[in-house]
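Hey, why these numbers?
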Amino acid sequence: MAFAGDMVIRLTANSMGLRKDLMKATGTIKTFGAGSKKSFTGFGRSGKTAFGLVGAAITKTLGKVVQFGKVLGGALAIATGAAIKKNMDFDHALRTAGVRAEASEQQLENLRVKAKDLGRTTSFTATEVADMMATLGQGGFNPEEIDGMVESVMALARATGTDATLGAELMSSTMEIFGKEASEASRIADIFTTTANSTLTSVEDLAEGWKFAAQGASTLGMEVDEVAAVMGTLAQSGLKGSVAGTAFRRISTLSATTAKELEEEFGVAFTDVNNNALSVVDTMAAIGMAADANAGNAEKLTQLYEAFGLRGVTASDALIKNFQHTDSLLAKIQGSAGSANKAMQDIEKGPWGAWKRFTSAVSGLMIQIGEGLAPMFESVMTKMTGWFNSFTDFIKENWNSWRNSFEESLVIISTTFQFTWESMGDILRLAVARYILHYVKFANLVVYFYTEVLPYSVEYYARNSTVLLIDSFMYIAGGFSNMIDNMKALWDAMLEWIKTGDFEPDLKGFGDGFRRTLRDNEAFEIPDRIKGEWEKDLEGTVNNLQVKLSTGLQNRLTTNLDKLHDTQAARAAKKLDDTRPEEFVGKERTAAATAGLDSLTGAGAPSAAATGAGAMQRGSAEAFSAINKAISEEAKVTQLAKDRNKILDQIAATLAEQSRPGFVGPPAVAANFPVP
């Protein structure tokens, strides 16, 4: 026993120590758990913050990517459209040049390659080069000549700051007038470049004066450089353009046609040994060198006036006084080979030239891209053209039907508005009658409820209350007696509702028990309501007004639409428009309405259809106006008929009053109001 007791004591002591150790361990675990929770909570917050920042950065980056994509997509769309437009302009200009030069397919392709190459390597765009080619082609040069001349035109345009097309036109006309070959184009460009850059004239002024001076000078055997030198000298004296050209023509013409008289006047020869007129440069120089230094200004001016007239005196005086300038300018022009190309290169050395070459290169790139997209673009445009043409044909084929429908809509709207305006009195009467009828019905219903329904209900339930209560109690008792079955039915119904969504419990003891109670006892019948005379009169008034307005509007619409159909049929029969007569709608209605029109309008009055059909010879707009006018006229006739009937009613009432016994009145009353 002692051993057992000692063992119990030891076990108890050990268990107490174990309990303390367990409690200590539990505290440690709780402390670790709290710390871990705090640590993990902090880690979670940090992670949440970090991931939130990363997510925000990703969202922001994606937003920028999307925005960049939109900008890039828009830029690509704009660039694609610009490339297609550039290629369209270039192709049109080049094909124009090909047509004017009568180029074959291969020659046109050669010109295309030439224009594109010059466009991407010079300060001129390919389209500008193609425009120059078109002008040269218009001047009568063939594709091979254009290929060799176009660079000279470019040099002239850039060296003188002239529009390239104008430069090409001037060179073409000059080479044609003076009979120069295409291989001499660079020489012509050098002449015009030196003249324009060495005097106060310009290529535009030279081109304007060339219209009057060049042809006559060529006939007299003068060269291009001589005419250019004379025009440059005149420009230094303020004579430019058409003024200089006209004066030059007068001087050269008179020098040739009145050579003998001028020789006698000035004492110098105006023709050579072969009786050919000398150059204006030579004759003006000879006159200047032979002039008498002692002669007065008036005498010199008189000589020039008598020789060349008022329009030539100023120019001749300038040429005579500045013949040395003319000679030196002519010598400069004759020694100006390559001046146009050199001037162009010098002008394009700076940043302006670099920019122009860059823009030309960009234009060339866009043209190349546009050429690649051209087949697809042509295919799309061809398909769209077919769609639009099909839609146009569809509109053309159905225009008559659409127009007829539109006219019918206008007739319906105008007729409805006109009828509404004319029937405003009846419409107001109908509105007032409906308003009053509403309150009369309500008042009668209130009276009916308190005088018929309520007393009968009280009497019925008083008579059958005992039976109703007993039957109700029995049904309720039956429901409780079947409580178990009812609970099961409810449970089954809930399961069915969960499965199918339908809730229809079959409860014993309830159901239609109360309804059977009412049915098995005396039937509950509400007495009929007897309408008052005022309510009946109001209902009759409302019904009559509704029928009158509905029938009147329907008849008016039918009449006016039939008249419109008559006019449309006449228009289609006479083919006064671009529509097809067989597409006319409403022929049946038109034929049915024709017989009734004479009875409405009278034998002597023109119908709306006849008026509209006649007006169709002046167009659809006048026809529709005529229809409306005819409708208005018939409305007036209808109103006059109503007024006439009202007067006849008044006459009949007056005659009835006169026939009453005891009536004393004028003996002539009956005669004054004859019954029609």
About this structure: The CA atoms of residues 221 and 634 lie 89 Å apart. The two ends are 154 Å apart (CA to CA). Confidence is low (pLDDT under 50) at residues 1-5, 577-587, 589-621, 662-676.
